[in-house]
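Late entry, evening session. Most of the bench is empty. Finally got around to the prediction I had been postponing all week. Sequence below, unchanged from the version circulated by S.P.
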Amino acid sequence: MRLRLDTLDLYHVQIPLCEPLQCGPVEVCAKNAIILRAQTSRGMGWGECSIPLDADDADEAVRTAWDALVGRAGPAALAMGEVETETFSDALGQHTDNSNVRAGLEIAMWHAAAVGRDLPLYSLLGGVSQPIASGACVGVRPTIDDLVAQVARNLADGYRRVKIRITPDWDIEPVARLRHEWPDLPLVVDARGCYRLDQIATLRNLDKYELTAIEQPLPADAIEESAQLQGAIRTPICLAASVRNAEAVRRIAKHRAARIIGVDVQRVGGLAPAMKVHAAARKAGLTCWLGTTPDLGIGASAALHLATLDAFAHPTDVGSSSRRFADDLLEPPIVVDAGGYLHLPDGPGFGYRPSIEKIEKYTLRHETITT
């Protein structure tokens, strides 16, 4: 669909977390994002440039994204005239290599296009209305007993799968304990690339616990090594950090380096690139799950519309907003039901309504860009 960007408002928002999150040596207490309000020839659209919670320097990450939006990507988008939503992210790639910036702008354009046609976003993406299974994500906890208690709370909230963080000094013991407590629990471990191929014995030892998947056991660029590992273990490997575009999926499929693809709209640069990733995975016979940075509600709701496509066969990492954030920017908020499912509200665009009152409440900086 063709539309023109006329005015762009940027809001740097910061929302407290429900509890501090330990990211390496740093304790993170708040979520940062840049919210975009795009006035277009088809009406208004909202987007989110999400700053990862585990960014090495969140303040610097915000400054980098803000400068890219104000100095290059925003003015370039305004100067493009009418553009196709399907190719907008690629066009932005000539002006910034920041995938989160491209995603934020592109989501806003897709949202405006959907609202302008009075359609839910998933209908423009080729999806169908359906409940979306949700899984809980649990970081490294101080003790195994604390991990068990956290997982128990997540399961009581209805989540249909649990993903825990593992490291070389925190892997077999916590997995064994969880499997003892819940023999049939769909369980994923996320290594975030911290293992090496010479640690294959440990990773092979995880096979006996009947995991749903090991996410990103090796570094993102270690595709051939991941293929060797996948050939040596029964547990499916999911590659997520390795997936920045459809070409990466084709390379993964060629080497048989994974059986599952993790799709993060922010990482790949928007909804259209994410659809290409999905299509490449589907063609190769690989299944997908929807990841998150985690995003606030605007980014998360856009991604949930993507998760209505047919190769998304696994529970998403997107959960109830209140699981991580003290507040969010949507009305109604994103909520997982008692059965562990997310339901997109009826209505055009996201279905959810971005709250300008809440956006302004949590804004640290605002700027308007015009032609």
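Two things to note before I forget:
Residues 114 and 349 are 5 Å apart (CA to CA).
Residues 58-79 form the longest helix (22 residues).
Will write this up properly tomorrow.
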